[in-house]
């Protein structure tokens, strides 16, 4: 079961990166061009939010099933995990940064709904989705993923 969920988590990550980048670029372009926030913009940002929330659920399940997650803490102890950079990445850094990224995406999406002006909607999404993208890109385990 673990290999299947890990494969889904890795493949879904490609989709996540694509849709978050598209949502960020769309919001940035909308803010710069001062165009109206239309239903298409709403759907793009919503789709990025949905894909990201699905990914975090898959990631949480994977954390409990993976030998790199909770089992690593239980078998090695937290001290050993913190001393090993790869273990620390999988147990602490990656999950924490992804949770923070999902929080930023959720805040950006929620804040855009409160604004009446299109420019403010775009700026809110661009700012928070951009921060989330930075957090996501900073802690992807690139050596194991690509």
Question: How is this structure best described in words?
Answer:
By secondary structure, the protein is an all-alpha fold. It has helices spanning 2-33, 39-65, 70-76, 78-83, 85-114, 118-138, 142-145. The longest helix is centred in the first third of the chain and has 32 residues, at 2-33. The model has no long low-confidence stretch (mean pLDDT 93).
Task: List the defining traits of the structure above.
146 residues, mainly alpha, 7 helices
Brief rundown of the structure:
By secondary structure, the chain is an all-alpha fold. The protein has helices spanning 2-33, 39-65, 70-76, 78-83, 85-114, 118-138, 142-145.
Radius of gyration: 17 Å
Unreliable segments of 5+ consecutive residues: none
Largest sheet: none
Number of strands: 0
Residues in helix, %: over 70%
Helix count, DSSP H or I runs of 4 or more residues: 7
Global outline: elongated
Average pLDDT taken over every residue: 93
Roughly how many Å apart are the termini?
21 Å
Q: Write the H/E string, N to C.
A: HHHHHHH
Alpha-beta classification: mainly alpha
Strand content: under 5%
Q: Please, how many domains?
A: 1
List the helices and strands and how they pair.
Layout (H helix, E strand, L loop, with lengths): L1 H32 L5 H27 L4 H7 L1 H6 L1 H30 L3 H21 L3 H4 L1
Helix pairs in contact: 1-2, 1-6, 2-5, 5-6
């Amino acid at each position: 079961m673990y290999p299947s969920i890990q494969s889904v988590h890795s493949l879904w990550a490609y989709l996540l990166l694509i849709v978050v980048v598209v949502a960020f670029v769309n919001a940035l372009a909308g803010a710069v061009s001062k165009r109206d926030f239309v239903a298409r913009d709403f759907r793009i940002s919503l789709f990025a939010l949905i894909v990201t929330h699905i990914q975090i659920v898959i990631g949480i399940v994977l954390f409990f099933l993976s030998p790199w997650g909770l089992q690593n803490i239980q078998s090695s102890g937290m001290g050993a995990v913190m001393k090993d950079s790869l273990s620390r990445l999988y147990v602490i850094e990656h999950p924490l940064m992804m949770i923070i990224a999902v929080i930023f995406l959720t805040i950006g999406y929620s804040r855009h709904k409160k604004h009446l002006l299109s420019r403010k909607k775009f700026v809110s999404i661009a700012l928070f989705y951009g921060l989330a993208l930075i957090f996501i890109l900073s802690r992807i385990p690139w050596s194991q993923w690509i």
